[in-house]
Amino acid sequence: MHRAHEFEAGSFRVSKNFKAKAKEVLIELLIMINGCNLKAVIDTGSQLNIVSEETYENFIKLPINRSKTLTLHDTNGSTGHLKGLVSQVPIRIGSVLTFAEIYVGASVPFDILLGRPWQIHNAVSIHERHTGTWLEFGHSP
């Protein structure tokens, strides 16, 4: 098992495992899309991957399928509208390249939320250790 450096803004090597920053119940990490560093939230309770509309327009710029819309009901009882689905978004985490289908949300409180679909498709395991929270990638998609 190869260990990498704690995730910070800067260059570092990532093989199959790396340490993510966990702030209370949120797991946050830096990802790279189209050469741009962005902050992502890993949410093991989410059934969707979601990107803010602003992040989509400024950084992802892939075609959006506007026929794939959803109404989102969050755990706080709020609702929101997801404007469409973007397929095969390349997300680099260190040296690991992953892909995701991501819904675009107009008013979401994060740049990108990576939920269970991303975790399952990319064989991502989350391990809690005394040294922190670690993500492990089982295979490349």
List keywords for this structure.
Cathepsin D, subunit A, domain 1, mainly beta, 141 residues, single chain, 10-stranded mixed sheet, 10 strands, Peptidase_aspartic_dom_sf, 49% strand
Write the layout of secondary structure elements.
Elements: E1 17-23, E2 26-33, E3 36-42, E4 50-52, H1 53-60, E5 70-73, E6 79-93, E7 96-105, E8 112-114, H2 116-121, E9 124-129, E10 132-137
Parallel strand pairs: 3-8, 4-7
Antiparallel strand pairs: 1-2, 1-10, 2-3, 4-8, 5-6, 6-7, 9-10
InterPro entries: Peptidase_aspartic_dom_sf
Pfam family, one: Asp_protease_2
Structure, explained:
InterPro entries: Peptidase_aspartic_dom_sf (IPR021109). It holds the Pfam family Asp_protease_2. 10% of the residues lie in helices and 49% in strands. The protein has 141 residues and is mostly beta strands. The chain has one domain (17-137): Cathepsin D, subunit A, domain 1 (Beta Barrel). A hairpin with a 2-residue loop joins strand 9 and strand 10 (132-137). The longest helix has 8 residues, at 53-60. It is globular. Residues 1-17 have low confidence and may be disordered.
